[in-house]
Amino acid sequence: MILQAFLIPAMSFSQVWDDNFVGIDSLYHPLGGVINLNDFYNYNDSVLYISGSFSNVNNIEANGIISWNTDTIQTYQLGMEWGVINAVHIYRDTLYIGGSFQNASGEPNTARLAIWNGEAWQGTSLGQPGGYVWDFTQFHDTLYMCGNFSTIGSNAFDKIAAYNGEDWINVGSFGMWASALEVFNGELYAGGYWGIRKYLGGTQWETFPVKPNDFVFELKADAINTFLYVGGQFTAVAGEPSVGSAMWDGFNWHPLGNYCSGTVWQQSMEIYRGDLYTAGGIYYTDDEEYRTFITRWNGESWDSIGGGFSDNISAIELFRDTLYMGGGFQTWSPVNPEVKQRNKGMVKLYMPDNGCDYLKPRINAYTDTFYLNNGEAVVNLYNNNPYVDSWEWDFGTSTGSVTSSQAVEHTYTEVGEYNVQVTVTDGECVKTASKTIYIELGTALQEFEQIEMQVFPNPSSNDFTLKTSLPNYNNTEIKIAGLNGHLKDIIPVTGETTVIPTKGWSAGVYVCNLFIDGKLVKTEKLVFE
Fold first, then answer.
1. Are residues 225 and 268 part of one domain?
2. Model-level pTM?
3. Which residue, 133, 74, 78, 83, is CA-closest to 106?
4. What are the tens digits of pLDDT across the range 73-109?
């Protein structure tokens, strides 16, 4: 039975598959157990940490954790006992590992979370987590950890905790398991049983009102284009087909279709040369043989890079300009599915430089239609490339182009349809994105002249208060644009005054957008000190 047989390896590229890892001759179980690699961790492009369910590397006992510098390996005492490592992280030059293991090399207090002190494994000052650890990340010089634990030692930590180098900190409660943490656009995001959450500071998290329709296992940020890719066990987002993968750009969800028919597991999503790589394309051949392919999203469409793996891929990582893949597969087929190659549970793939394809500029705004108020319509526009060399904007008027910044504001005085363009330059790469906006008379909105909006105090170092005067408050909300224009918050407006909470905000300029019946009617800048 063929479930999905239309994946054709993209052989127009000079891609190179390889399973030669200098210094690593074999990863294995002496008694013939199944090898499965769970995580790769790239530390400063100098050392690759490899973790999984193996007991030996070459002839050395390692039990689930080694590091490798492309030439030599390092082991860590006798590694783990009874269980696996799900996540590896270096925080303040110290190695942390988390997972389901019962102890690290027999050392006390090291179940599920262990710290390498340079000579031996040790536990935390509080004790060990009461459940599995799934992921780490570093945010504002603090280590964050998530999983399926409710305690660390005798202290309550509900699926999420933070460590500042001295103390473990309560940063909120998730209720159900969390499997992924990622920093995106200067903010911390979490993925898990409940979908996607954004950290507001202290113990507060905000759950996305629109999210994938099932579990989220993985998050991966594309910092060049400010895209947040989401992987998991879901089939749709925002009501559109999006199997296993979706993308959030800070303004809207972008469904990625149903090309990849498999679940994207923890640690199995990576950005390489600006494209998204996942393990997908699962199908059975006529002989009912299970296969998995590496698939790539180039920003517009999917294609299969190949691989023909005999079983799951559970770890993908970029290291020294090469994509490393590990999992439970015993064989792989880079080109011809009939030619199977045995391996040590991991392979690597080099893709040639794709020129300027990594740069994917867009123009974002909170609406396409704006209304003249007292003869003016103030339009805020945002490009999604914060780290390029320059931006040149053309607002579709006779004023010509303007060299400016990533986020711009332009005032229109006449109704019409305008083709806005931004040209971004990054080294030798120059690309242009465009967007059509519409300027209409305010009289197109019922009772437009009665709409008033005031925000105070402004500037503020605490919360803002919005004051509005409307005939009624049906279908009214404000959308707060954060730094670079990304959505900070959506707050319903149900009366004359509305509090705008600022917990977790960074100092800077924000934009308060008032929407009525989905139409943007008023805008005001907020200065948070």
1. yes
2. 0.90
3. 78
4. 999 999 998 889 999 999 999 999 999 999 999 999 9
